[in-house]
Amino acid sequence: MQVVSISSLKGGVGKTSVTLGLASAALAAGIPTLVIDLDPHADATTGLGVHADGQLDIGRMLKIARKADLAANVVPSGWVRNAAAGRESEPVLDVAIGSAFAGIYDRPDLGRRDLRRLGTVLTGGKDPVSRYSLVLIDCPPSLNGLTRMAWTASNRVLLVAEPGLFSVAGTQRTLRAIELFKTEFAPTLSAAGIVANRVRSGSNEHTYRLAEMKSMFGSLLLSPTIPEQANWQQIQGAAHPIHQWPGESARNASLLFDDLLDGLVKRGAVRNRVHR
Question: Does 276 map to a domain?
Answer without folding.
Answer: no
